[in-house]
Amino acid sequence: MTTEDKARIAQRAAALLAAQLTPRWQPLPHQIPPPGNWYGWLLLAGRGAGKTDACAEYIARHVAGPPCLPGPVPHWVGIIAPTQGDAVTACVAGPSGIKAHDPTASGPITTAGGTVVRWANGSQAKLYGASSPEDVERLRAGGNTCVAWLEEFAAWRYMQESFDQLRFGLRSGPRPHWVASTTPKPKPLLNRLKNGEIPGVVTTHATMYNNPHLPEHIRQMLEDAYAGTDLGEQELYGQILDEMANAFWRRKNLAASRIRLDDLPGTIRRTVGVDPSGGAGEQGIVVTAKSGLLLPGVLPGPEPDPEEARPVQQRPQHHGFVLDDRSCQLPPEGWGERAVRAAIDWEAEDVAVEVNYGGDQAIAVIRTAMEKIGVDIPVRKVRATQGKAVRAQPVAALSAQGRWHHAGKFEELEEQLCTWYPELGWSPDRLDGMVWGPWHMRLVGTMTRGTGSLGGDLARKQIAGSRLR
What we know:
8-stranded mixed sheet
């Protein structure tokens, strides 16, 4: 036996002794797994509620329990976090991670097959991220598991794709299942799980205030940041927000102005707005249209708010429409072809591409896709000289006036419209892809001749005076 082997055995013995001498972790009521043979346990909780602790304890106890598989590896576990680094720090090595709940766990260890955690009984957990197409492919090839832990599930960039792949591989043992710990965010998949649209999912709610062990200075910092705000409902109380008070769009306006595609009036312009986001993350691809002049009352509009007097428009006006949302998370050749196909399918006059981040490369992606498909559609550069708020507010005003209509329901786009506001600091790509259409078709504001950029001074005046064309 080598000196290194002796040191490893001594270290393991010390860990076992420490585990015996350390008082067992005692779960709070919301940290106790629900009874029954559920397929998924969704723990929606505010910051500091102890949701990571709950899932780390669950995985540690599962691995120590009856074998799911015969042979030298009784349990194969998948641990997925927003990034693989998050899986290491939060789920394994951190103060609420697996090693804090089971000192006999060793790792994380980087091997030829990936980053893993190992237990003395032979069980293994493999760590994944969910932030890129490559992460999705690693999940696809990651093998079968008996249990999976979905850490900060709502923060996964590739949420639906990663969830699909982990479910496809969750098929080992007598009862494959998953546990998820997350501060909620308004994501369609999370809403479907919470509302029972996927069978066998049980939801537990908790707030920051359900954890009496949270240090007071942490509690105070979180309250200073979120108390009394919309985000406080999400970050402190673990509630999924339907809309934000500071958001530019209101669900009641979207619903009141929604039409069936069969009821679409004659349009005089159609365009595909593209926000390539510099080629990373989600690409916003939204088809919009502009009607001919319509008399008031031709299309449904929201009921006037009695507390907000607004004049009734009597003259014919143009209306705007969302026809399709083709937004995606694809490499350049994928999103370029998707944008061109949208233009073909909807007989759009052109494609309006934001070039702030992708520059001429974004235009080249579209041109390459057209050459591949064999079409020639005009491509218009649009460049933002002001922030997203300047572009979004006039289009939101159209919605409040009953002049902006969704021809169908576009869940993910509408989530962004009703929950985003500038101070959040993240980029709503679907929203941005949508608002380029009405600007480009001159439903709102103007474009500076020759540059395709927003006229900043005029845009600000349009917002201040609500003078929409």
